[in-house]
Amino acid sequence: MKLLFLAHRIPYPPNKGDKIRSFHELRALAERGHEVHLLAFADELQDLAHQVDLAHWCASVRIVRLRPALATLKTAATCWRNRSMSLTYFDSWRMRRLVRRALAEHEFDAVFVYSSAMAQYVPQELTARTVVDLVDIDSEKWRAYALNARAPKARLFQVEAERLRAYEYEIVARFPYTVVTTQREAALLDELDEFTRRARLRVITNGVDLEYFQPQDVVALPDTPRLVFTGAMDYDANISGVRWFLTEVWPLIQASEPRTEFFVVGRNPTREVRAWRHLPGVRVTGAVEDVRPFLHSATAVVVPLRVARGVQNKVLEALAAGKALVATPDAVAGLRVTEQEQLLLGATPAAFADAVLKLLRDGEWRAFLGEQARRWVEREHRWQTPLQKLLELIEAVGTRPQTHNQTNVRALARH
């Protein structure tokens, strides 16, 4: 089949949450023998160079440079309108022109949309042949931001949550299939009638690269206990989570184990994040070529997220690497894990610190959790299973009989 793939961020390299899922989906489509034509945004200049890499899997690649500062300014200038800020942020005349050109040049059997913001580019004539992967219910993220913000930001975030939720409902009603990562995400769309939920909404979880993230048989741990957090450090949810950890949890750990080090491993650290280097025992690495050495050197991995949606790749990667992990309940709410079998949980600062200290002091307990974690990931989160489900959805809509309107898409695109 000939497919149009629309993504809000270039799906390469697969080194951060949204890119990991979109890359595996794109690669699966290509390896299935489908002809994939990719249109995506890039919000970092260096990402434009990866068009060459993507040509390995795509018949054509067109990337639009998205300048975050200008996009934010445009969004702020139009936030008074009755439209989601997220849609405005990713609204681009260049992207619309490329979509029209692609429709004029190709007769697509199906369209795959990655993230709600890209659904605005699907023409009416192709809605019946489109699958949308929302990944997460992003409106819920804005709702959580509103609860943790002060006025007037809190009101702005709440309005965005309401507008984006309405658009998410519209997507589910408009397209044949809409995908989310967890049953928890699906349950958030609680205003959908039962028939729509059953007929149009699908849950397809994330996988993890089990060959890339593997436990090391022999690991020389550092002389001092080491905690590690991995994640993009220009992302609000990661920043607020680590801020909570450093403010509320870290002092409790240092009071009992003052030699402990905490590594914050992630690209694009903000000014606030860089300033954490001055705190006792805290190391901020910035971008690294490979997170695996940091995972392998960790006595334990921590994921102290307070705002978290869907499936956290950082959790799956740490568990696949066979590491003992402590997380907040929100960080793993989308996973079918059992506390004290695959990981430890801490909802309060005291509980989180106690769980970390238990791991720092008990090597046998760390080893047990690491072994169980790896076995669980192998059983629950191999990429092959969720990708097969997605391929079947896309192939189902792609083989539907064309309507009269769909046969005229190329003619309409020229005008």
How would you describe what is shown here?
The protein is an alpha/beta fold and 415 residues long. The chain folds into 2 domains: 2-207 and 383-413, Rossmann fold (3-Layer(aba) Sandwich); 226-380, Rossmann fold, CATH 3.40.50. Helices cover 45% and strands 15% of the residues. It is built from 18 helices and 13 strands. It has helices at 17-31, 51-54, 68-77, 85-89, 93-105, 138-148, 153-174, 183-188, 194-200, 236-256, 271-275, 292-297, 313-320, 349-361, 363-380, 384-398, 404-407, 409-413, and strands spanning 2-7, 35-42, 60-65, 110-114, 130-135, 177-180, 201-203, 226-230, 261-265, 282-286, 300-303, 325-327, 344-345. The strands form 2 sheets. It has a 7-stranded parallel β-sheet with strand order 3-2-1-4-5-6-7, with helices on both faces. It has a 6-stranded parallel β-sheet with strand order 10-9-8-11-12-13, with helices on both faces. Strand 11, helix 13 (313-320) and strand 12 (325-327) form a beta-alpha-beta unit. Helix 6 (138-148) packs antiparallel against helix 7. The radius of gyration is 22 Å and the shape is globular. The model is unreliable at 411-415 (pLDDT under 50).
Helices and strands, with pairings:
Elements: E1 2-7, H1 17-31, E2 35-42, H2 51-54, E3 60-65, H3 68-77, H4 85-89, H5 93-105, E4 110-114, E5 130-135, H6 138-148, H7 153-174, E6 177-180, H8 183-188, H9 194-200, E7 201-203, E8 226-230, H10 236-256, E9 261-265, H11 271-275, E10 282-286, H12 292-297, E11 300-303, H13 313-320, E12 325-327, E13 344-345, H14 349-361, H15 363-380, H16 384-398, H17 404-407, H18 409-413
Parallel strand pairs: 1-2, 1-4, 2-3, 4-5, 5-6, 6-7, 8-9, 8-11, 9-10, 11-12, 12-13
